[in-house]
Each structure stands twice: as structure tokens, then as C-alpha cells.
Amino acid sequence: MKKISFILALIFCVHFSFAQSILKRDPEIDAMVKEINADTLKANMYKLVSFGTRNTLSTQGNATRGVGAARQWILSRFKEYAKQSDGRLAAFIDTVTYLPDGKRVDRPIILGNVVATLKGTDPNDHRLFIMSGHMDNMRTNVMDSVGDAPGADDDGSGTVAVMECARIMSKHKFPATIIFVTVAGEEQGLIGAYYMAKKAKKENWAIEAVLNNDIMGSNNSNETNIIENTKLRVFSEGLSVTDTGKTALQIRSLGLENDGRSRQLARYIKEIAERYVDNMQVVMVYRNDRFLRGGDHTPYVENGFAAVRFTEMNENYTRQHKDVKTENGINYGDLPEHIDFEYLRKNSAVNLSNLANLSKAPAVPEEVKIDVKNLSNTTYLYWKAPKTGVVKGYYILMRETTSPVWQKKLYTESLDIRLPYSKDNYFFAVQSVNESGNESLPVIPAVGR
Question: Where exactly are the structural domains of the chain?
Fold first, then answer.
């Protein structure tokens, strides 16, 4: 008996010594990350600020001032990038007439989101990945559509990051489709994002992830005076508002309150970003957004999509939503000279590395199950191949129930695996992975028998 036990233990050891995976950077993604240019981000930022104001209620008939001029310029840049895409990138302004709402819109306006779609190369792959920032801004008074409002960090930073990722990624091919969008109306109540999210829901877009970028270019805070350019916050909800009824009961019974789609996306983002972006730590914040505040990812979350928000580590409130002025020795206003463009470069790289890895990866594995037929101190997982993508194998993710991130990553080329770990003590997930090491989002197993 002792001999048999020893042989079984040896088999387990040999199996997992081979199953442990050493992760490497995909050379194509690594090259794209290195191409992000702080000077290009800076030039685009100063151009955005030159439009004086980008308030959603501002003029749309002036060629050099207001939100209309700004969105036409953004569109022109997207169209310039399209020339290097072999016809795969197409851009337009998606407009709708928005009527007065008794809140932050006091007259009829043409609401316009600038959308650039990089079409995927696999006609059978309908997955969509979205990178978003909002082009509009505000002064102290959100209804002031005339006075100057630089809006460099909020949200010129997110806007130019979207543009820079589109510039670089348009030169490459991905099986899945990527949408780059600069939305209007964020300061007016997220109305541009709500328009797009509701449209996506109505038309059944296969959105797998939304990366929203808002206030991501400044490295220091007021009051506490903390300076930090090596950390970026990612906000994610734990459970979806759509998790009701039997779904909510199952989540409670399995202890998956911390494993909603947006939270899984945030874990994925942290792993991939820290793989590709040097001197960068992604800090997961277990909230949909900052305390009692909101952003353009929220409309997607409310419509059942996985969406997160990127925001700098330490916000400076002397610059957000402030008229440009000096008072009591403090310089107020959201000016481009307050931006750390190297920090913005790294934060843009967090987006690009994740968009590229997701869109190059196969689709997620199908029908992932955890066997509960018998009580056991081992865990048996099984699944089916993804619907699209060329799969080399699968990663099995593990973490203790108290861990915020995945702790083990095991590799197999089978469609099932038995692990010498108890499902009582660990959470598990399965990812598809291709030859170049690009992994899909993880799938938490459902109960199987």
C-alpha cells in the first residue's frame, strides 16, 4: 500500500511539474507597448486644450472652438490612422438628438460620440472589446458652455490614450473586433455612454470587455501631497445588477460574491498589465467607481456587460471641475502642464496590452464544469473547446478563497483535469490559450455531475 501511495504521489508531482507554466511576453504586443509615445500623447493633449472648451453644450458650428470642432479633429485623426489599416479601421461620429432633460441639458443638442472600429480578421469571431474615454469637459459650473475649460486630465488624458492605442493597433491584425470611442456628455450625466450601451444591448453586441479611462494622467494629489506614477487604480463591481433570482441564489451558495464578470476582468487586467508594463502596479479597488461617484463604464455595467474604470492613483481636486485661477496661492484648473506624460504613457500601455492580448486570444472555453458527484479532496474540472480561435491548450487558475488575485496557473492540453486541491478551500477558473500565449478571460466553473 505504501508503494502504491508513493507511486500516485510521484505521478502527481511529475504531472504538475510539467503543468506549471512560465509566462512570457508576446513579442508583437511587447513591440506595440514600446511604440506608445509620450510626445504624441502630449501633442494631442495640447491640441485638445486648444479648442477652448469641449463642454457638451458648447458650440458645434465653430471650426476652431467647442465640442463640435474637437470631435471633428478626433475623427480626422482616426481617419488618418485608418490609412495604415488595410481597410480594417473605419471611423464616424455617431449622433443622436438629445432633448432637454431638466438636469444638465437645458436645450436640444446633437450628441456625438466619435467611434473608430478596428474590424477583426476572423468572420466567425463576433467578440467586441471597447476602449473608451470622454472628450467633453466642464468648468466649475457644468452649464457654462462658453468659458474656457482646458479639461486636460478630465478627460483629455483618457481621450488621447484612446487615440494613441488606435494609432498603434490599427497597423496590426486581430481575430476579434476592437472599438475605440471618445464619448460626449459624461459631465452631463454619462449620456453619451448610456446612448452607446443601450444601443449595444438592443443590437446584441457581443461585448466581452469595456475599458473606460477617466482622469488618468496626473501623478499627484492635493492635501496629502502624495506623488505616485507607478500605480493605477482599476475599479470593478463584484456582482452585476443582472444577477438576480436563481442566479443570485447560486452565487451565494457557491460563495462567488467576488467573482462577477467585471471583477474577473479587473483581475485579468492586473495580470496582463504587470506582465507588459514595467514599473507599473495595477491596484484593484473593490467598487464600481470612486465613493458616491460614477463614470462611463457604469452604463455598460447596468446593461449586463463587463466594464471597469481606470483612474490615476491620487486625484488632485484643485484641478477637477475648476475654473483656471490662482487663489490663496493655489493654482486651480485642469491644465496640460499638470500632466505627467510618462505616467500617461504607461497607463495607455495598460490598455493596449490588455486589448491586444484579449483580441488575439481564442474565445473562452465552453461549458466549464466542476464535478460534484462525489465528496472528494481532489477537484475534477471539465469543459469544451471555444467556439472560435486556434487553441493550443488551457490554463487552470487557482486561488484561495481569501485571495484577491489568482495564485496558481497550471497548463494542460486536455479538456479536463483532476487537481489534488479541495474545492472547499479554493476557487478555480479555466482560460483558453493559443500558440503565442494569449489567454482568454477566465471562466468560473458551473456545477456539473
Answer: 2-24+363-448, 36-360
Pairing mode, strands 307-312 and 231-235: antiparallel
> 155: cis peptide before it, omega within 30°?
yes
Q: Which single residue is written with the C-alpha cell 438576480?
A: 244
Q: Distance (Å, rounded) from C-alpha 120 to C-alpha 88?
A: 8
What pLDDT score was predicted for residue 374?
A: 86
Distance CA 175, CA 363 (A): 10
Mean pLDDT over all residues of the chain? 94
Q: How far is CA 186 from CA 34, 190, 196, in A?
A: 31, 4, 12
- For the stretch 137-194, pLDDT in tens is 999 999 999 999 999 999 999 999 999 999 999 999 999 999 999 999 999 999 999 9
At residue 240, the pLDDT reads 84
For residue 50, give the C-alpha cell: 486648444
Exposure string over 102-128, b if 16+ CB within 10 A, otherwise e: eebbeeebebbbbbbbbbbebeebbbb
Report the CATH architecture of 2-24+363-448. Sandwich (2.60)
CATH code 3.40.50.1970 for 36-360: no
Residues of the chain with pLDDT under 70: 1-22
The full length of the chain comes to 449
User: What are the phi and psi torsion angles at 377 (to 5°)?
Assistant: -90, 0
State the pLDDT at residue 21: 53
